[in-house]
Every structure is written in structure tokens, then in C-alpha cells.
Amino acid sequence: MKIAVYGSGGREHALVSSFVSHGHQVTVFPGNPGIATMADISPGPFEEIEADLYVIGPEAPLVDGLADTLRARRKLVVGPGRDGAQLEGSKAWMKEILSSANIPTASFRTFTDPGAAVEYLNSYDGPYVIKTDGLAAGKGVLVTRDRDEAISDVTEKLSGKAFGLAGTTVVIEEAMEGHELSLLVLCDGSKGVALSPAQDFKRIYDDDKGPNTGGMGAFSPVPGVGEDLVSQILRDSVEPLIAEFRNRGIDYRGVLYAGLMLTINGPRIVEFNIRFGDPETQVVVPRIKNDLARILFEVASGEIRTRPEFISEAMVTVVLAADGYPLAPKSGAVITGAEAPLPDGVQVFHAGTRRSNSGELLVSGGRVLNVTAKGRDLKAARALAYRSLAAISFEKMQYRLDIALSACEQNDA
After folding, report:
1. Lower Cβ count inside 10 Å, N or C end of the chain?
2. What's the pLDDT tens digit per position in 335-350?
3. Does domain 109-173 have CATH number 3.30.1490.20?
4. Position 412 pLDDT exceeds 90
5. What is the DSSP string of 388-407?
6. Alpha-carbon distance 5 to 368, whole Å?
7. 3-state secondary structure of 312
């Protein structure tokens, strides 16, 4: 099968690696140096690539209607149209959808006026959860117990200084307590099929300190999360969402990323995204035994018939980030060791890299590389990932030391 993939990150590298391993011919736009070692890179435009299946990785082109453009040309596409993409394009719209479908989530208020938002923040004690309405590359959320910080954040966002038009509406939510979980679900317009649960790490520093990022690491499977819990999430959150979409005339064919909080009262939705998670994809997709591309073809065709099967081994990925990330990442540093031979069970997915005119591998984005390892269990996978990343370096490279650590300790208990 000929497959066209849109994107240039670690998520797309992981998808391409899976497709190629099953013998498919893959063309990618715009791609990256890692992807270029295993697939053709197209100069674009993406719509002009001839393929049997089109897979759109990032959220922005989906929100902009790329899937609609392709479907108007009678192409098979994995990814929602502009209508369904508003689930991630507007957090206020997402919360309204969840409320309408009676899906468990945090209570919330929506604001466009800074004065009204500040008055609301002054009406209760924290913690405060403030979310930018539009797309913010995973950096539009503040969780804080400090009221002054919350007021400063909401004022800056609503002024348009922080995220431009994307930030001129904010959602202020009830804080939820519990353990976070990521569940990727393939949707064919009428039903959802879950992939292996994962957990990611959103803060830049160890112990969940510092500002939010797009994700600093992930692991799969998740201890204590079995089929019963996944079935509950599908029943209470995913199936009602798909039904709500159908009631509104939205034919959602693509991936639903359910970000959940496992509370004492059960799973509650933190957010829904409209695409494969990043970095969750890097630990979920390599665990799929059968041909993911064939399943995605069924997604795009409107009827999933093949269930994904998973290996028993665990996967851990650690993100290597640029100096200054996430606030002001610096590009241009030379990367060494990323293209050396790898131990068995290790893959290095490229995210923010580019090739210099002289052939050197350079930092070109905030999240640079994803060192991903497979092991008989999480402890073995984690050890292999950290052992392998020690061979890679670039100036002021950042990474967390605690990816999957608590899960390993939980397994040892």
C-alpha cells in the first residue's frame, strides 16, 4: 500500500517506522532527517502526493481543514474534518460537547473578559486550572495554587500577548486529583477501538515541576490499568462522544486521544485531542504486533474490522529537549551520537532535527529526539532507554530522569 504521512515529529517517525516494517511504501511531507532514512520525502504540497491512504499527524492542519480538502478529492484519510477537529481547536467547544453528552469531566467556566476572569479567580481558593481555548502546542495550560500567578496568567492570555487569538478565550476548570492516563482510540465514525493505554509526563522537570510541555516522556502499558478500566472509559466517555458527533452530523474518522484523570470517583476526561499523542505514539505504536496501516485503512473506510494486537513487552520513551524549551527553545546545536548503531530494542525517533549543508545533524525544535526502548517489563525498558541516551549529546540538552520511575516502583512493591 502507498501511504502519505503529514508531519515532521517523533510521532510521525514512529508511525512511518511501523508502516515500513510491514512493507508499505511511504511518502512523508515535510519529514525530518530520521524519517528520510526509511521513507521518501516529498517537497509538497501534501495534497498532490499519490497514495492509497493519507495519515495526518499534527492537529493544526486538521483544524485548518486538510482532511476535508483530501476527502473532496475522494482520498481515504485518517483524521477528522474541520468540524470534528474543533474538539481540539477550541477547549470551550470541547467542554460544551462533553457537557451535552454527559461525559465525566471537570466543571468549568469560559471567559473572554479579563476583569470577569479575575473576579472569578478571587472568588475561591486554588488550585486553579487555566486553559487557552485554541491551539498552544501543549503549553497553554497553567495549574497553580498561587492566585497571583493565576491572575497574571489569565490576564496575559486574554490580552493576546501569550498565544495571540488562540488565547483570547480561556477556560477555567475545577482541579481534579488522581493519576493521569492517555488512551488512544481509533474511530471509524460509528465506533471506537482502543490501543494500549499509556502515561506521559507533561512538565519539563522531574517530580512534575516547571511549565507544561508537549510531553517529556511516556510509557506503556500502565500498571493497574486493565481491560475492565479501558472498557469503562470507552463506555462512559468515548462512545457518548461518538454518538454526540453523529447527532451533530459529524463523521469522525481518525484518532481520538483521551487524556484522563483517574479519580476516586472514576475516570474523568481532562481533554480530548484529535490525533495520535506525542510522545505516547512512540510507546504505543511499536507495541502493535499486526499491521497498523491496514487497520488505519479500515478507519478511513468507515468500518474497523481488525483489532490491534499487542506484544507483551513494555516500552519507555525519554524526550531529549533543546536548551530553553519550552519557553524559548534554541536551535542550531550540533547533535552527536544520535545516528550511531543502536542496541537491540532501541529506536531513536527524530522530532526537532534538521541536516546542515555539510551534513551535520542539528537541533531545530524544542523536543529534539525521543529515545525509545523495549524491555521485558517497564524496569528493563526504562534502564535500556536511559543507558542508550547517554551516547547522545548536544549543547545544554534537557531530559527528565524520572520517566516511568514511579510505575517501576509500583511494580516492585
Report:
1. C
2. 999 999 999 999 999 9
3. yes
4. no
5. HHTT-B-TT-B--S-TTHHH
6. 19
7. coil
